[in-house]
Specification:
This protein has 1 helix and 10 strands, in the order αββββββββββ. The chain is of the alpha+beta class.
Amino acid sequence: MSGEQVPAGPDVRTRRALLAGAGAVGAAAVLAACGGEDDGGAAPSPGPQITNTGDAGGGDREGAQSLARTTDIPVGGGAVFAAQGVVITQPTAGEFKGFDPVCTHQGCPVSNVDGGTINCTCHGSKFSIEDGSVKAGPATTPLPAKDIKVDGDQIALA
């Protein structure tokens, strides 16, 4: 520079304040999303949108009403029923298991069942479709089991 003074009028200060504020908000969002397990009680990010593949009829799902047909749950796979609070898997033909749909790492909802694992795309944790155990971190605690019942070709919460 040739020693010229940059004007410091109101327009310059306004742009600086705007850019500084936008940078601070962006940095805060990145830091919050990448926080460790001890985040001081900060709420987890909501994670990916989960499509409910269960019965769209609504109502009370505790107990008697069916969540899915046995044919809806692929062998070696499963389905996430976030609204009803369960992941249903079929590790082997005719064997159905239920698990909590909330990742034990930072509370994000699990997003899908693929490749023999229940997957959380927030931070990459993977859980076994057989017993909910951790197959890949950062989670260190298994998904809790949920009681389900199979009656004929219908699967419901127990």
